[in-house]
Amino acid sequence: MTQSELIARLTSRYPQLIQKDTELVVAEILDAIQMTLAQGNRVEIRGFGTFSLNYRSPRIGRNPKTGESVSVPERWVPHFKAGKPLRERVDRLGTSGTIK
Fold this sequence. Notes:
about 100 residues, alpha+beta, HU Protein, Chain A, three-stranded antiparallel beta sheet, elongated, DNA binding, transcription
């Protein structure tokens, strides 16, 4: 699901909301998550999951095209860990992709 699909779904589910308001709310939520992670903190949404940062140390990688060694610098990368209710709901998915 893309951000625009999320906005469309919320707008159709809650007709009292104007699409512009829904766009603003979604943008504010995503911006708050980004800002919190950029400050080095974690975001926990109960029943959904936790956004945090993982540290990746510097290493030597390889350019797949040339095989040449390349230095990959250290970095912090966003990480998402699903909460228990989300994991259980996804586990109930059938092969058809619908929730049982």
